[in-house]
Amino acid sequence: MFFDNAAGAQIPRRVLEAVTDHLVARNVQRGGPYTRSHEVDAMIARTRESVAAFVNARGADEIAFGLNATSFIRAISLAVGQTLESRPEIVVSEADHEANVATWLALERVGARIVWWRPREDGRMHAADLDAVLNERTRLVACTVASNATGSLVDVADVAGRAHRAGAEVFFDAVHYAPHGPIDVQAIGCDYLVCSGYKIFAPHMGFAWCRREAINRLPTFREDFIPDVTPDKLEAGTQVYENIAGMNAAVAYLEDLGQRVAAGPRGTSRTAMLHEAMRAIAEYERTLSSHLLDAVASIPGASVHGVTDRRRLAERVPTLCFSVAGIDSSAIAEGMAARDVGIRSGHMYSPRLMTRLGLMPGGVVRASLVHYNTLAEIVRFRDTLGEVVDALR
Ligand SMILES: Cc1ncc(COP(=O)(O)O)c(C=O)c1O
């Protein structure tokens, strides 16, 4: 049984078929004058359209493909680091995955001043707290949309509004959030947003959405003959094309789900269908969260770090981190693994948040679910967890 989806959601068969088809039929560089190479160009263009629909971009040119989210954060942060001028301050969230922290911290070498935005005692990032750290020297605010450790959501539209009013840009890490709900970059009003394919039912690859006016102003690395504008701006080198083909199939899978659940008339935009799917997923996942919270609450000595109030389930995704008094988190994850339940323990790459919550050095146990998980699995999870905890006491 698999409850570690935050470390990689499994793919639908059609994604595998798209990857295989690409490798078998057109495993070649783009830009050639013959059919196979044209097909690669066409596949990339199609996937760009699909991903643009997924995040509601203004145009497919605002989507860039790459290796993973971390390398995009690095590439964009390096570019931002060359444009600090009178705004040297970067606001970084203490609750984030280290990929969206260490990358910005590295800019201290080029004169950036890091300003910390800290979580409150509830472990959550409150947008209102930003006002105390934003000023006319703030260049950018970097934060996650959902914590990969606690599953808590951040009100990113509020973050963007406050940052923009201070004249700063915003960079959002949607890696953990993306499989759990709709993304609308225009409604959020952000400048940069990154995602990772393996969290959203696609193979290992990453994509970045960048507001074209913002990214086109930045000095990114490319060979001289590559156009210095979107979509080429952030795509130096050869991509893993088969995984881009897989990403397209993953979006098609979600779109089909949207068609199936759509209540109103069909035939509306791709984004509308994708958002239908993601809203249905979010609604179902709130039931998963509720049952998962009940399961952990049934274990004596267990405490959940994150939103537990059943009336506030819309403020979390079904990623639950918890600890059991007097028992090592790693022993619990190992005990569960020995009984064929895949979960994880440790700091979840968010060691600063764990330290702030007083949960280091051992860290927490994390169970992370997506829409293909079931209530029956949660019953088995609860029973197995009870057995493991009893054995360790
Ligand atoms: C919230 C968050 N941000 C960033 C990353 C890093 O993404 P990638 O593995 O694509 O570099 C992860 C990976 O788990 C994550 O959960």
CATH architecture call of the largest domain: 3-Layer(aba) Sandwich
CATH topology of the largest domain: Aspartate Aminotransferase, domain 2
Name the helicity range.
25-40%
Q: Please, how many domains?
A: 2
Q: Which range does the strand content fall in?
A: 5-15%
Shape: globular
Order of helices and strands: HHEHEHEEHEHEEHHHEEHEHEH
Report strand order across the widest sheet.
1-7-6-5-4-2-3
Brief write-up:
40% of the residues lie in helices and 13% in strands.
Give an overview of the whole structure.
This protein is an alpha/beta fold and 393 residues long. It has two domains: 13-253, Aspartate Aminotransferase, domain 2; 272-392, Aspartate Aminotransferase, domain 1 (Alpha-Beta Complex). Helix content is 40%, strand content 13%. The protein has twelve helices and eleven strands. The protein has helices at 13-26, 35-55, 69-81, 99-105, 156-165, 185-188, 212-216, 241-261, 270-297, 329-338, 351-356, 375-392, and strands at residues 63-66, 89-93, 113-117, 138-144, 169-173, 192-196, 206-210, 302-304, 319-324, 344-346, 364-368. The strands form two sheets. The protein has a seven-stranded mixed beta sheet with strand order 1-7-6-5-4-2-3, sandwiched between helices. Helix 2 crosses helix 8, helix 8 (241-261) crosses helix 9 and helix 10 (329-338) packs across helix 12. It is globular. It binds pyridoxal-5'-phosphate. Pyridoxal-5'-phosphate binds at residues 68-70, 97, 99-100, 144, 148, 173, 175-176, 196, 206.
